[in-house]
Amino acid sequence: MLIALISDIHSNLEALEAVWDEIKDADAVLCMGDLVGYGASPNEVVEFARKRMERRAFLCVRGNHDNAIAFGAEWGFNPYARQAVRWHQRVMSVKNLEFLRKLPVRQFFTDDTGRGYLMIHGSPRAPLDEYIFPWYSDEEFRTILSYVRQDDLLLGHTHVPMLKVIGERRVINPGGVGQPRDGDWRASYALINTEKEPPNNVEFHRIEYDVEEAARKIVEAGLPRFLAERLFEGY
Questions:
Q1: Which of 42, 178, 195, 221 is the most exposed place for a label (fewest CB within 10 A)?
Q2: Is the model's pLDDT at 56 over the cut of 90?
């Protein structure tokens, strides 16, 4: 079984389409949230995801930007993100906003070997908001995993790829599809191949996409230019 992991698309249709070309043959696609926010193609991204969820094993949880746009929960956002949230709320269709409102905060998945995964955007302690970074101590990861009954914890939110192995358990973040923040502008995703033994059956991948077009759309929409410029820097 081949399982594709994606997260933090952030209304970047060009990045999502490039990644999808690479993962479309996977047996399952697991998305750790933030379909929308920041970028200029929120309706297109939601419709892309929604149509594929209707036809295949494609699971997605709600991220903090999905939540902010769907419910107006923008407190704690920086000015750039807040401006993008309000723009999204103006341009998104009612159907797509309703879709975001119905996304679960937690989702569970079991692969063909019986290994269980908990999907969540931030952390099990604060599902929408807490950042879990790869440089945290093993002790901190053990504390985080104490809230989880499944074998593995799948996260997003930081936009930074991560594989942390604690005993026989793992914390995995595939990085950001639409707005990477690890210094590499290319769209990030991960693949789990269950024919191989864990923990070494996770592969991280990067793919180039039409970043110029994604940035052009942001500027053309009247969103902060900073949100376009950061795409080129991977930050």
A1: 195
A2: no
Architecture of domain 2-233: 4-Layer Sandwich (3.60)
Rounded CA separation 66/79 (Å): 17
Please classify residue 53 by burial: count the beta carbons closer than 10 Å to its beta carbon, then call 0-12 exposed, 13-18 middle and 19+ buried: middle
Contacts of 207 (CB under 8 A, 6+ apart): 18, 19, 21, 22, 186, 187, 189
Q: Is-contact 41 10, C-beta < 8 A?
A: no
pLDDT level of residue 94 (50, 70, 90 thresholds): very high
The tokens describing 179, both together, are: 């707005």
pTM of the model: 0.97
The domain spans of the chain are: 2-233
Burial class (CB in 10 A: 0-12, 13-18, 19+), 130: middle
Query: Under a CB-based contact definition with an 8 Å cutoff, are residues 119 and 106 in contact?
Result: yes
Query: What are the structure tokens assigned to 130, written together?
Result: 């807490």
Q: Average pLDDT for residues 72-92, to the nearest whole number?
A: 94
Computed over every residue of the chain, the mean pLDDT equals: 97
Q: What is the mean pLDDT of residues 214-226?
A: 98
